[in-house]
Each structure stands twice: as C-alpha cells, then as structure tokens.
Amino acid sequence: MAGELLVQEVQNGLDGLSVNGDDKTNWGDMSSDQSSTDGSSVHGGDDKNTYIEVVDKSMSTHHIHNVYFYKEKIETTVAYSAYVVDQWIKVVNNDNRMKLDNVVVGLDVEYNRMRKQGKQNSVAVLQLCVGRCCLIFHISCCDAIPPSLDDFLGNEKFIFVGVGIESDAYNLVVDYELKVARTEELGSMAAYKLTNTFEDCRDSHFHKAGLKQLAKDVLNQELPKERRIQWSDWEDFLSDEQVEYACLDAFVSFKLGVHLMNRANPVHKRENNNNQNNNPQQKKSSKDPSEPKKGEEEKTKQQQVPLKSNGGNKTTGTNSKRTN
C-alpha cells in the first residue's frame, strides 16, 4: 500500500504533463548561434566533454560565455545587474509565448558551504536554464532583484525541475521571498517513469540519486562535479570554472526534465498480485481490517483534485525545513 501511495503521489504531479516537441527538439532555435567570439578564450575542464568559452567579460553588468556539454552549446549569461535579469526573462517569455503550458526550466542554486556560526549561508547564485539558454544570477553581488523574476518563478506555465528542488525553492523563499510556483523533483520523476512496479518505484535508488548519478543513469552522460568548485566562494565574482559548474547543473537538470517528461507514464503493477490471488487467506490475514477503507478514502481525495493543479507543487515555504 505504501508503494501504491508513493506512485500515486508522483503520478498526481505528472499527469497531463508534456512538453512541446521531443528530445530531438532544436533547443538552439531559442537563441542565436551567431554570438561573437572575437578575443575569447577557452578553458577546458578535467572532463574532455565539457569546456567553457569566454565571449565577453568587458562589462560590469554581465558576462557572456559559451559552455559546452558534449556537442551542445549553452549560451550563458552571468548577471550582476537586475536589468540584465529582466532582459533575459523577457527573451524567454517571448520565445515561449505560443506555448500554453508546461515549459520546462532547469533550476539550481549555489551558496557557500562553510557555515557561519552554525547557520547555512544565504543563496548566492540562482541558475535558470531554458533550452540552450542559461542565466546565472549572482544575487549576492546584484544591485536589486527585479519584479520580473518573482513573476517568472511564480508563473504556473513553467515547471521548474532539479535535484533537491523543494529545498532550493524553500531557501529562495526564506532568503529573498521568491516563491517558485511549480516544481518537480527529478529523482522522484525518474523513479516513477523508469520502473514498472509499485515496489520498484518505492525502492528505487533514483529517489536519493544526485544530479551526477541521474545524468549517468538516465542520459548516459558524465557530469563533472568537482568538490573544490562546489565548496568554493560563491559570493565573490565568479571564476570561469564556477560559471561552467553552475551552468551545467541547470542545463543537465533541464535536459533530464525534458527527457523524463517525454516518456510515457508507465502502468505500475504489484509484484505479488499473483501470489495474493492464489492464496486469498494469506491476503486477508496480512492486512489490517481498516486498511482498505483508508485506501479508498485516499483514492477519493486524490480524484477530487482538479487535473490542472496536478502539474507541480506549490512552494510556500511552510512545507520544508531549512537546516540551520
């Protein structure tokens, strides 16, 4: 029963979800591939499949990079100004104006891991990725937070996906009063989409898998995750290595979200159905007498929820706890 309820909870969040196109969508159409690279420099990481190309770092308001993940180029804007964030959001909204619902956005945050007086530091960097366009908003160095960002995160047209997405969304509420309207946890989505039985979904390692593991298991791609970069100073101006790290986290989250949502919803079955049917006495004695009634009540409650509201979780800051 616990397995069935877990699957039902995940399914409630995924029913009706789809994205326009498929995994072969030309995400590059969302932005120009004509960015100037005059005078740019290229920095390759330890992973030969990823590297970063500096396009323009001459302005104090923002820097432009191209980050490469295998053969995919992600046009990346590092914003130190509210105006730049506002303009990036306007472009994304314009590019997706014809899409009615369920636009996938990869979301991640970075903060300094070294605690001060035992308390977790505030979010320093917010990463958003739509298609092959990534925004790295350096909140801790920015002059202000534009209202358009609050509207963007609160727009239920967009589905924000990531690993530990509820925790990230909660921290954005606590630190900056930014509420994320719709979220989907990639681990839970992978467990639901890639298993065939209630028990497998319930016990799947995907629930606790990190982004690196999900990228390997689901996309068959290696995502570099260097601890020294993860534990670096995210409140100072970002190095090229930090930009590459932050961009890839958001892009791979986006890519996983699209890949999983494009998979058909499986029909989960109970592994022990046959055994229970062959031994009705065992089936009767193994359940609490009140369990069927409780199960029916749960099923009725779930069916009463309108389909439109099932597309994601509403993050209000009251359903998560921040670790101090």
Automatic annotation (TrEMBL):
GO cellular component, one term: nucleus
Listed name of the protein: 3'-5' exonuclease domain-containing protein
Region span, Disordered: 16-45, 267-324
SMART domains xref list: 35EXOc (SM00474)
Domain 3'-5' exonuclease: from-to ranges: 82-265
GO biological process, one term: nucleobase-containing compound metabolic process
Entry-linked Gene3D superfamilies: Ribonuclease H-like superfamily/Ribonuclease H
GO terms, molecular function: 3'-5' exonuclease activity; nucleic acid binding
Ranges of compositional bias, category Polar residues: 305-324
Residue ranges with Low complexity bias: 29-41, 273-283
Organism: Papaver nudicaule (Iceland poppy)
UniProt keywords, alphabetically: Hydrolase, Nuclease
Biased composition (Basic and acidic residues): 285-301
